[in-house]
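Could you help me review a protein record that somebody else here produced? What it holds is a sequence and that sequence's fold in token form. I have pasted the whole thing underneath without changing anything:
=====
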Amino acid sequence: MKKLITGNAGILPASIANRILALQNLCIILFILLLTLFIAGCTSPTNQIHVTGITLDQASISLEIGEQTSLTARVDPTNATNQKLVWSSSDETIAVVDANGKVSALGNGQAIISVSTTDGRFRASSNAFIADYIYEIDSAEQWHRAIEEIKNYGDNRSYLIHIMADFELSGLGENEFTFGDVISINMIIYGNHTISLSSIGSLLRIGHRQNVTIRDIVLEGIEYNEKYPLVDIIGEDAVFSMWGDATVQNNSGAGVWVQDFARFILKDNSKILNNVAGIALGENSTFYMEDNALINNNGERAVSMSRYSAFYMSGGVISGHNFTSKREGCSGVQISGTFIMSGGLITDNETHTTGGAVFVGYDGTFILDGGSINGNIRDAVHVSRNGSFTMLSGEISNNTGSGVELKQSSVFTMQDGVISDNAISGVLIFSGNFNMLGGSISGNTGYQGGGVFIHGGSSEISFLMSGGVIYGSETSGVPADLANVSRDIGAALYVHNIDDVLLQYGDGTDILPHIDGFEYYTDYTIEGRSVIDR
């Protein structure tokens, strides 16, 4: 017998009433679920107020060893939902920082104190300079007093000199050193100000086992100072570094001269500008160029290297030099030592006579393992006088002369990389040996031999091609005395005025050029990786 349920709506069967009750319960559950989702949505990450930036109250701090100070971070906007921050030090042997931004000085040198959001999207930093002694200087008088104290403190000390204003200093004579004969000192001179030279001489002279860094400082030279570099680095383990936006400029002599086992480091956004000569490297000296550094002077060359010197370029730009002499030389880097280029750019340098943006000579060695040499006026790389050039990678392109020119018993080995779009042959050989193991020579032009042009004048010439490709080269025409030679011959390889030149490919077969209807002119074309005797 069916049960009856009595209510305001009348009497319903029990089965229908149960269904209505279940539906009511389901509606309550759905309402609670929707309410929960609504509340969660109001506090979900999509409705949070996100951080848009972080700033620190001090761009740099200076501490003596054992001191402490605090950095204060500001999160923007100030009502951001998540204001948790992560603090860190680039070198905890120099300075450490706790979770609240308190910095403790532990050792000599510089560390970068950073603060970031927990997700790492936003970051701010401050330079922490740590030393035994700190000076704040705003005049030449204060400078001289500080220097005398440094000389008296003796060896094995570290110093911070914070330059607080512009001032002038008189030049140092040949036998005067800025910090005397103290050794094993570490010095950081920093500040957004200019120290100017007021009389003939050097502004800084750094001696044996003295390590000096300038950061953001401008060193200003003068006219009629041809005999003196603005910065002179002399002696074993003497080190001079330029960081930040440090600049050496406007000297009528060299900007920096590195001598006798000394080292020079040019990094960050530092610059050598508008000096008659940029950097001179003496025997056994070393120069490192990194990051976004710039060498741009109004003189004949950027870097001049002596025997046994070394130059390592991993970044930066060398540009704007003009070599006007009629002798063989260069407008960018002149190499008698060893130059290893693994990055950076050499561009917009001009050579008026024989030479190039990079000149390798006097037993010098150039290794190109990255970076670019392009947009120079005349040759990109000129190898002469027993010089050696090895191309491991990188690019030589869009120069108004040859990509590579060989003279006087020089050697060029191409393992990889690109030589392209140069106006007077990819490789031009007057004397020397070209070994092509890989890479590509393409899109170059010339009177003959847009790819490779072997010119007469020496029997000491060989071209060994065991890899790589030469393609897309063009000849723009020939001089009047060669008017009987077709304009399109020798686009890839042209041999001129040589009765006996060694040409080899892969299997080592000698290919002796012969007269092809025109006395002294022989044409070879390289298609892909094969040599075709025309």
